[in-house]
Specification:
The longest helix is centred in the first third of the chain and has 20 residues. The radius of gyration is 22 Å and the shape is elongated. With about 70 residues, the chain is mainly alpha-helical. The model has no long low-confidence stretch (mean pLDDT about 75). It has a domain of about 45 residues. It has 2 helices and no strands.
């Protein structure tokens, strides 16, 4: 992306990479602080808090019976 941006705006590749890096850092900082940002074409991105435990993604942890494994050995 930086190479295309540099070529289309007559910038050096390092300058374009710096601009993109700073833009992403700024966007992430604002999102972490709870602010809303609008990216044209992408909408309003927002951060979600991760679940406390991976098992809460499905509500119930998957046991041996749920996947059809024989519990008797």
């Amino acid at each position: 992306m930086a190479a295309e941006l540099a070529e289309s705006h007559d910038l050096m590749k390092k300058q374009a990479e710096a601009v993109l890096g700073d833009l992403m850092a700024l966007a992430i900082r604002h999102l972490k602080n709870g602010h809303k940002i609008r990216l044209t074409g992408l909408g309003l991105p927002h951060l979600q808090k991760p679940p406390k435990c991976p098992c809460t993604l499905q509500g119930e942890p998957i046991g041996r019976d749920a996947v059809g494994l024989d519990t008797r050995q």
